[in-house]
Amino acid sequence: MKLFSSVHDVDDINALVKEALTLKQHPFSNSHLGKNKTIALVFMNPSLRTRISTQKAAQNLGMNAMVLNIDKEGWALELQDGAVMNGTTVEHIREAAAVMGEYADIIGLRSFPGLVDRELDYSEDIFNKFVKYCGVPVVSLESATRHPLQSLADLVTIEELKTKARPKVVLTWAPHVKALPQAVPNSFAEWMCRADVDFTIAHPKGYELNPEFTHGATIVHDQETALQDADFIYVKNWSAYEPYGKVLGNFEDWLLTNERLKITNDAKVMHCLPVRRNVELSDEILDGPNSAVVHEAGNRVWAAQAVLKRMLEELD
Ligand code: CP
């Protein structure tokens, strides 16, 4: 594997999930693979889970891991080709990515969307330029439109916790005070559409995701209908795709409660974290027996390790 940016980079998602679960049982079984190899984890935006879990995964494989918070610690990056750099930007992505490729065998990159220009965000301009110029395998640590390491960890979690062969999984929109990217729900949707699950998306009218990611899902605008007999509930806020990046209303009645859990099949509640308590998810759910959010975050290590293992196996 030379690139991990979406579910489309994976031939067999079930085999990758199985690999992650095997690594969870035997974390150091492949520690020879990363000997004398280096991964650079480059962050243009904040992170807790992705940063530490990927670093740990790399270390379990015997790799050296370098972290660069390039937004704070690097030179101000220019992204436009042909730019006359007589303003605030100091280094072009062409040189920055190429130089990092000299130092690292694999690069991980986090680059959030601007949520202003939909065409630009959905073209994955920054991520794709980085891939083009760095010259080494790249793993997405969340890009403008997708968060594949999160989605793989989510699928690993569902595989571990499911009590039936084909569980009902519901992705439900939740309220928030800020406009958030669509990367997590987009990515979760496209992974669930490939997985062997019964998948429903619930959101208020107006919060439709880009259909490119939701093809194959059942989409409803009533949370209660969606939650009926659910085995897993994936809670997440996202801003509108149309009008792009906008918050359309509070819809506070979409905050998941214990009362609403009663109509589910004792559903496990998932969230990628970080979560704003009592805005996006209630205390009673997060602190209750159905919450799987910390377990899910723990699985980020094994998802990252499975992906890095595949990349290391194919390094020249
Ligand atoms: N879920 C997730 O990606 O968390 P971080 O933003 O903290 O990495």
Layout of SSEs?
Blueprint: E1 3-4, H1 13-25, E2 38-43, H2 49-60, E3 64-69, H3 70-73, E4 77-78, E5 91-92, H4 93-103, E6 106-110, H5 118-122, H6 125-134, E7 138-140, H7 148-161, E8 168-173, H8 183-194, E9 198-202, H9 211-214, E10 218-220, H10 223-227, E11 232-236, H11 258-261, E12 268-270, H12 283-286, H13 293-298, H14 300-313
Parallel strand pairs: 1-7, 2-3, 2-6, 4-5, 6-7, 8-9, 8-11, 9-10, 11-12
Bound molecules: phosphoric acid mono(formamide)ester.
Phosphoric acid mono(formamide)ester binds at residues 47-51, 142, 150, 272-274.
Describe the overall structure.
By secondary structure, the protein is of the alpha/beta class. The chain has 2 domains: 160 residues, 3-Layer(aba) Sandwich (Rossmann fold), CATH 3.40.50; 148 residues, Aspartate/ornithine carbamoyltransferase (Rossmann fold). The chain contains 14 helices and 12 strands. The chain has a 5-stranded parallel sheet with strand order 1-7-6-2-3, with helices on both faces. The protein has a 5-stranded parallel sheet with strand order 10-9-8-11-12. The longest helix has 14 residues. The chain is globular, with a radius of gyration of 19 Å. The mean pLDDT is 97. The structure holds phosphoric acid mono(formamide)ester. The site of phosphoric acid mono(formamide)ester (CP) has 10 residues, from helix 2.
